[in-house]
Design goal:
The chain has 172 residues and is an alpha+beta fold. It has helices at 125-139, 155-171; strands spanning 17-23, 29-34, 39-45, 53-56, 69-73, 83-96, 100-108, 147-153. It is built from 2 helices and 8 strands.
Length: 172
């Protein structure tokens, strides 16, 4: 099964999506779903542990021919390959000297702990800083430049990003 092509984007896109978990909270292993080989590959082992689950959004495409990826807030442990119903709450774009990184920010759709979290405005500054840290830390292995700009997009703008990523996937 190809997790990127064979799994639907979600039960009600762009409002309710599926995330195929690649990385789990607490792990030192950083995995990435290899689109060509249709398998989870160990990209590297990191010194610090992953703070939040991360996963790809099936049938989406963004920069450099990659699927849209999301940080997923869930209370319980998941595992690589687990398909988690999610609800987008925001989007983060980080610009560095020569590159930009972006992630959808989402909560588990059926996770009561996050039912009142509707946008990124509903998460604390300390959680925002941890999200930023995770993205910067994981990407620092391939780029030593300092972060120049951080943009948090709110809910309506996030839905546009998801819709555009789905449209781009369908065009290719």
């Amino acid at each position: 099964m190809n997790y990127w092509k064979d799994v639907d984007s979600g039960p009600d896109p762009p409002h309710k999506l599926y995330a195929v978990i690649e990385n789990i909270r607490g792990s030192h292993n950083y995995y990435q779903y290899d689109l060509i080989h249709e398998a989870f590959t160990l990209e590297r082992v990191i010194y610090s542990h992953i703070l939040f689950d991360e996963g790809l959004i099936p049938r989406t495409l963004i920069e450099e021919a990659n699927p849209l990826r999301s940080i997923v807030f869930v209370k319980q442990e998941t595992f690589p390959g687990c398909v988690v119903p999610i609800r987008p709450i925001g989007f983060i774009k980080i610009s560095k000297q020569n590159k930009s990184y972006s992630k959808l920010i989402s909560v588990g759709l059926n996770d009561a702990l996050y039912e009142d979290v509707l946008t990124t405005s509903d998460i604390t500054d300390s959680i925002r800083n941890e999200v930023l840290y995770q993205i910067e830390y994981v990407n620092s292995f391939s780029d030593d430049s300092k972060t120049n700009q951080v943009n948090w997009l709110e809910y309506e703008e996030t839905l546009k990003v998801v819709s555009e990523a789905m449209k781009k996937y369908n065009e290719d």
